[in-house]
């Protein structure tokens, strides 16, 4: 019997386990999935927790709820991939042989990478919302905070969901307006990018939105350290920005096992072909989602589109056929802008976000690069879609390849 091992039971790994179990004969292919955690987090929901819109219970479920029968599940940490000998070594010493390996180990925040971040003010006046603990601690802080300098800072790129820091800043604007405290809160958005977003046209629109909401943007700021006594973030060129509350998006890295196995870049993101999703080094290893070094957003929509491509290419590999699917970098992201409205962007490796209607040309009902209530409801509805359709590997109505239909050049 041949063996497929999937490393990671997050979004990408869970989708692939469901899809491959349906496609492959059980008496011919054994599928094993490995993850160190039994809890599945709906990470887009972390954004809503600091503002009292979601609770912890809204964003967590057992991973076993979404994994199909007929798949071996192991909850253990991965120590190393011995790609030369086609096996994975787990932390408890167990060795898993594979014929095909799918890496879906995701990415995680590393606040310890920035000196001073996890100092005396950590989760007291310095918070993250990319972890469940950080989001809950910030929610408790906001319940009694009476205002001051609120600084939102991206430590470095890439990060999960690049628009989430923007959403946080705009949510904060609405939150403090509704509490009657907005005139007591100065919001500053500090980023290493040259604008609000990585793509020029979207950056222009989103920067205008921030300015409209009286959110000050500080671009090209590369944080070097945090001074806990002075309550300041300090850049490599010694610029200082003072804060009363710092909301940080820490440095992100891939799984250490990718690095020690010699399969990743300096940030432990796996090196692979950005179109076929096949390892640059070993033809029987593939990657999906945040674990890759692809130049696209580390977002849920990306995993969904990549899964379509990877499923087809895995079947090609099994049947010794040339790859017939190619990932074009397609990503689309809802952007909460506060007050019950949202924006939407749709882009790929070669085409930046453009205005227009989505998913149906001229009809929508969603608008690209503009604020609408429909976009907000789309974001809210996605949580149900995520739990009931996406994770289970079911078909979605949006094609994995980006289309220009409905877009205005």
Quick structural gist:
The chain is built from 7 helices and 24 strands. With 409 residues, it is an alpha/beta fold.
Task: Give structural notes.
By secondary structure, the chain is of the alpha/beta class. 23% of the residues lie in helices and 27% in strands. It has 7 helices and 24 strands. Strand 16 and strand 17 (240-242) form a beta hairpin. Helix 1 (11-23) runs parallel beside helix 6 (300-318). The chain is globular, with a radius of gyration of 21 Å.
List the helices and strands and how they pair.
Layout: E1 2-7, H1 11-23, E2 29-35, E3 39-41, E4 60-62, E5 71-75, E6 78-82, E7 87-90, E8 95-97, E9 100-103, E10 107-109, E11 126-127, H2 132-144, E12 148-154, H3 164-178, E13 185-190, H4 200-212, E14 215-218, E15 223-227, E16 232-235, E17 240-242, E18 245-249, E19 252-254, H5 256-260, E20 285-287, H6 300-318, E21 331-338, E22 341-347, E23 356-360, E24 364-368, H7 373-390
Parallel strand pairs: 1-2, 1-9, 2-5, 9-20, 11-18, 12-13, 12-18, 13-14
Antiparallel strand pairs: 3-4, 6-7, 7-8, 10-19, 15-16, 16-17, 21-22, 23-24
């Amino acid at each position: 019997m041949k063996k497929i091992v999937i490393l990671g039971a997050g979004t990408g790994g869970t989708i692939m386990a469901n899809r491959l179990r349906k496609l492959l004969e059980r008496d011919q292919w054994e599928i094993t999935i490995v993850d160190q955690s039994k809890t599945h987090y709906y990470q887009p929901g972390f954004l809503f927790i600091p503002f009292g819109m979601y609770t912890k219970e809204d964003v967590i479920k057992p991973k076993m709820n979404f994994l199909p029968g007929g798949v071996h599940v192991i909850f253990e940490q991965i120590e190393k991939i011995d790609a030369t000998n086609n096996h994975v070594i787990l932390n408890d010493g167990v060795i898993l042989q594979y014929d095909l390996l799918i890496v879906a180990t995701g990415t995680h925040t590393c606040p310890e990478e920035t000196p001073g971040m996890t100092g005396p003010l950590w989760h007291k006046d310095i918070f993250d919302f990319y972890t469940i603990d950080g989001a809950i601690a910030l929610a408790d802080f906001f319940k009694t905070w009476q205002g001051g300098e609120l600084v939102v800072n991206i430590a470095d790129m890439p990060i999960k969901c690049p628009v989430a820091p923007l959403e946080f800043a705009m949510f904060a604007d609405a939150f403090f307006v509704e509490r009657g405290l907005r005139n007591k809160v100065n919001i500053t958005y500090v980023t290493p990018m040259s604008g609000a977003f990585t793509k020029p046209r979207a950056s222009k629109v989103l920067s205008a939105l921030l300015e409209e909401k009286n959110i000050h943007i500080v671009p090209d700021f590369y944080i070097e350290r945090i001074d806990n006594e002075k309550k300041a973030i300090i850049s490599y060129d010694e610029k200082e920005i003072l804060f009363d509350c710092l909301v940080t998006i820490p440095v992100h890295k891939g799984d250490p096992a990718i690095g020690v196995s010699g399969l990743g870049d300096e940030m432990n993101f796996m090196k692979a072909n950005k179109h076929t999703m096949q390892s640059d080094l070993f033809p029987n290893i593939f990657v999906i989602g945040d674990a890759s070094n692809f130049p696209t957003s580390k977002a849920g929509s990306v995993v969904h589109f990549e899964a379509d491509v990877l499923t087809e290419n895995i079947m090609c590999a099994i049947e010794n056929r040339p790859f017939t699917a190619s990932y074009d970098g397609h990503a689309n992201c809802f952007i909460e802008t506060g007050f019950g409205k949202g924006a939407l962007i749709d882009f790929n490796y070669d085409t930046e976000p453009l205005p227009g209607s989505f998913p149906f040309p001229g009809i929508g009902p969603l608008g690209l690069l503009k604020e609408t209530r429909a976009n907000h409801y789309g974001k809210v509805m996605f949580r149900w879609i995520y739990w009931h359709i996406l994770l289970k590997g079911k078909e979605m109505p949006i094609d994995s390849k980006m289309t220009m239909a409905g877009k205005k050049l």
